[in-house]
Write a sequence for this structure.
């Protein structure tokens, strides 16, 4: 019996690994598809590495875009990422997709407002405050919010906020929202949320599809179900509502 138990554990682990490998293998396509991946506020390219690796394993060519978000204005960030993207665009034989986490999703939308790509594919926004977040409303004038700079303070819910300045999408957009609260922020965020962004704030009037994953804002880009749903939307233009959800 002592020998059988470890063997059963080993078999179970192998089955899990094989199942995940099959999931990726089924997603691989012969199409030439390029994905720009953008991180969120106060993060860096490193924070999107795991998601990028999963996209690459599914057959996408991936480029992570990094930018400074603290003590920088939205306008300066847009100029920075526009230069990075436009100088690295692949040839038109590729379909070009975009994936953005949190602020990165807003930057993707802002970039696409001014840059209409002939070979544009689909866009996935992960935990993006498309309608702003009430946390910024609450602490807008606090000393520590001021230290974070103009971009952070522009993420409120009022009509003059940065999220409200971006046009509605003209491209297929899938929205992934989190639903695991962070206790310290619970009282100031109405309804369901990911600890930072209310679920309702992630929505857009012209979104193509939406799915909710049970994880919090910070861990959304590291979640395997988020990666699999991102691959599904980029590949097929919709999420799988009966699979991959934590």
């Amino acid at each position: 019996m002592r020998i059988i138990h470890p063997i059963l554990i080993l078999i179970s682990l192998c089955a899990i690994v094989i199942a995940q490998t099959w999931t990726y293998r089924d997603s691989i396509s012969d199409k030439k598809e390029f994905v720009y991946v953008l991180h969120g506020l106060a993060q860096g390219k490193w924070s999107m590495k795991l998601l990028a690796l999963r996209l690459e394993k599914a057959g996408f060519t991936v480029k992570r875009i990094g930018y400074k978000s603290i003590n920088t204005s939205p306008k300066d960030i847009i100029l920075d990422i526009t230069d990075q993207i436009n100088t690295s665009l692949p040839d038109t034989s590729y379909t070009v997709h975009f994936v953005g986490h949190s602020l990165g999703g807003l930057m993707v939308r802002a970039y696409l407002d001014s840059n209409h790509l002939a070979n544009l594919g689909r866009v996935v926004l992960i935990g993006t405050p498309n309608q702003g977040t009430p946390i910024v409303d609450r602490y807008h004038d606090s000393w520590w919010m001021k230290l974070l700079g103009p971009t952070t303070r522009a993420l409120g819910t009022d009509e003059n906020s940065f999220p409200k300045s971006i046009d509605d999408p003209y491209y297929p957009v899938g929205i992934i929202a989190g639903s695991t609260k962070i206790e310290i922020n619970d009282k100031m965020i109405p309804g369901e949320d990911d600890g930072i962004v209310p679920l309702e704030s992630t929505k857009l009037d012209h979104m193509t599809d939406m799915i909710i994953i049970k994880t919090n804002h910070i861990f959304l880009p590291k979640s395997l179900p988020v990666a699999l749903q991102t691959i599904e939307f980029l590949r097929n233009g919709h999420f799988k509502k009966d699979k991959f959800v934590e």
Observations:
- Helices lie at 4-27, 49-57, 74-86, 103-114, 134-139, 143-148, 150-153, 224-236.
- Residues 5 and 242 are 33 Å apart (CA to CA).
- Residues 1-27 have pLDDT under 50 and may be disordered.
- The longest helix spans residues 4-27.
